[in-house]
Each structure stands twice: as structure tokens, then as C-alpha cells.
Amino acid sequence: MTALLTFIGIVLFVVGILVSVGLHELGHMLPAKAFGMKVTQFFVGFGRTVWSVKRGETEYGIKAIPAGGFVRIIGMLPPAKGQDPTKVRKANTGPIQSMVENARSAEYETISAADDGRLFYQKVWWKKLIVMASGPLVNVVIAFVLFGGLYMLYGSPVAQTTVATVTDCVIPASQASADRKCQSGDKESPAKTAGFQVGDKIVSFNGTPIESWDQLTPLIRNNTDKPATIMVERDGRQTELKTSTIVNQVREEPGSDKFVSVGFLGVSPESKIERQDFGFVVDEMGRMTVATVQALGRFPEKLVGVAKSIVGGERDLDSPMSVVGASRVAGEVASNSDLAVAARLSFLVQLLASLNLFLALFNFIPLLPLDGGHMVGAIWEGIKRGFAKLLGRPDPGYVDVAKLLPIAYVAASVIVVMGVLLVVADIVNPIRLFNG
């Protein structure tokens, strides 16, 4: 049964990814067709074609490797200024120039005079911007719908004012891990000293009435190493507990390697699933967007740790994963009998939503071959043409993004290497959410 549930979890997650990829590419294709651009191919996957059908001038299909997808919009690479787009020359002036011109030549092998006016580069800049931005924006919408449905229909864990665990000792954040236990020489936690028990409901902290755990947390942190009087409700009666919080180091933010010193008590709360409103979804999406952007900024640093894990180093739980690793985690959660079915489905939805948000923000990076690279080209074209019109100068024409192809090839190579590195790590030393 465990193997079957694992398989089902993996299949559901992979199908979710393929649907997300298909919708992303649909986000590119629909506005492209609406603006009169010529679209010849719409495929989910890469490699050998498994199935395809042609409708009009567009071939739709599925390829063997479920690791992405593509839409071929004709004329993405413009001819060099002054060249006939149907007669692009092949350069022999140097390897870089030859690379660019050969790419142009391949782009225009299937273009005829009848396609004039329907090529991507010939369209006004804002249409090109919409076409390229619509793909990742679809992923943002998918993430919002998934998170919104999850939080508003099922709910989100909300910390209560009731104590779930009492920490026995103080472990610095830099040493904290899943298997780190209290050792001789560790300080007893202030909560243990005060006599906290599981099930205590915190009523007040130093005279301040407590309505929520979010209200309590900053009070504890700001108390540093000062005395603390905490009123708790236990067995229907209020009991006063006295202790002194201590200064301990915690991570500045989840996944960060920077630590800050704050007051520490040593209790953690019970959590309860509660349905949320639309405002919560918006706030949570904003928070996760910021966190994802920060994670992208730390991506190269995290890859170093991933590389070390391949040769025997410890794999951090917050390290990046490939689709292989994410699928394995989906299977692991789906087969975990310690979790309720609703909790398992909730995790799978969150995982797929988070992946869509990551794909959107990754594609917005202003670098070819990503969508963001073409978006920057379109915006730059709009700025140049706008200033030329304002100053009464001749129209400078389209921006030649083909000149950036050498950089695009380097970037694509780096992305491939990173992908291979993550896949290898996810096979050799995968992230495990549960012991065993």
C-alpha cells in the first residue's frame, strides 16, 4: 500500500507540473495568435515526439521528457539591420559572429514572403512584452488560485496560545538539527525552569494580556535576558510562573545563514487549521514572493552545499531541489500514514503552488533564454522608440536581441549544469522530510 500511495503521489504531482507547463506555454501562444503572430509548434516536454496533431498552421504535441515545454513563435530572432530577412547570410568573420548569424539563418529557413508582418520582431514592442510576460504570469495565477483555494476552503495552520512543547535545554540555532539532543553543559531552558507544562494556555506576559501567539513572540524576543512573569491557565485555574528569558541566537529569516540575538523562553504553540480570508491569501502571496526572490538570490550559494552533499556532505532541508526531488517528496508525503489525508493533499497543493511561483519568478529574470530576457528587449525597444519620437528623431527600429545569443548560450549551459547537479543530488542524497 505504501508503494502504491508513493506512486500515486508522484504521478499526481508530475501531472500537476505538466498541466502547469502547458498552461504557461498557452499563456504565450494565445496572445501571440491574437496579435497575428505565426505560431508553428506547441509542445509539452522535450526530446522525441510521443504524439502530435496539426491544427491549421500549428502542431500540438507531447514529447518524451517531461521537463518543460515550448511554443515556437516565428521571428523571435530578427535579421541584422539592413539584411533581407529571407536571405540571412552565414558569417565567417569569427566564432561569435558566426554563432549569431547561423542562429538567424536557422530561424528563417521556414519563413516565406507570405509571413511578412506576422513575425515576432515586426510587432510593436508592447505586444511582444505581453506575449513574453503572459507565460510566467499564468504561473502566478495558478499559484494564487492554488494557495487561495487551499487557504480559503481548507485553511492554514494558526498558532494558538496553548503550549504544545516545552524545550528542555537551550540549543544555539547554529547547532540546531533534527537529531540534536540536549547534552551535558547545555543550559536549562527558561520555560523548563519556570515549570511550564504541555497544555498550558498563556494568558499574559509581564502583565500584557495575550490574545495570539503572534502577539506573544515579539514580547519574548524583546525581553532579552530580563525577568518574566507569565500567567497561564492550567486545569481551569490560572497559575503564575516566574523565570528570566535568556538571549539566544536565531536565524534572521528561514534559510538564512545570518543570526540575530533575541529573548528566548523555550515553548512552542499548538496549531489549528483555520480557514482564511482573501486578504490573508494576498498577504501570504506577497510574503512568499519576497521569500522566493531572496531564495533566488542565494541560489548559487545553496548550490555549493548541494554539490558537497553529493560527495557525502549533509543535505540541508531548505536546499533547492529538482523536479525529481520534488516528485520524490510528493510521493513520500502521500504515503505517510501518520498524516491525515487532508494534510497530505494540502502539502501536495502547497508544493505545486510553490513550484509555480518559483517558475514564474525564475522566468522573470532579465536574461536570455528566459522570458525575462525577451521582455527586457521589448521594454528597451519601447524606450528607444519613445525617446526618438519625443525628440523628433528617426525611428531606431527593433532591438536586435540576437546579439545577446552568446550570453544566452552561456546562461543556458549554466542552467543545464545546475539542473543536472540538482538531479544527481536528489538521487544520491535526497531531502527527507521524515526519518526512516
Question: What layout of secondary structure does this protein have?
Answer:
Blueprint: H1 2-34, E1 39-55, E2 58-73, H2 95-107, H3 125-154, E3 156-166, H4 190-194, E4 201-205, E5 208-209, H5 213-222, E6 227-234, E7 237-244, E8 246-251, E9 259-264, E10 267-274, H6 278-297, H7 299-310, H8 323-334, H9 341-363, H10 371-390, H11 405-428
Antiparallel strand pairs: 1-2, 3-10, 4-5, 4-6, 6-7, 8-9
Helix pairs in contact: 1-3, 1-8, 1-9, 3-6, 3-9, 3-10, 6-9, 7-11, 8-9, 8-11
Order of helices and strands: HEEHHEHEEHEEEEEHHHHHH
Provide the spatial order of strands within the biggest beta sheet: 5-4-6-7
Percentage of residues in DSSP E strands = 15-25%
CA distance, first residue to last residue? 17 Å
Round the mean pLDDT to the nearest integer and report it.
Answer: 86
The DSSP helix count reads: 11
Extended strand count: 10
Low-confidence stretches: none
Helix content: 40-55%
Structural class: alpha+beta
Q: What count of domains describes the coordinates?
A: 2
Largest sheet: 4 strands, antiparallel
The assembly state of the depicted protein chains is single chain
Alpha carbon gyration radius: 28 Å
User: Looking at the structure, what is the overall shape?
Assistant: elongated
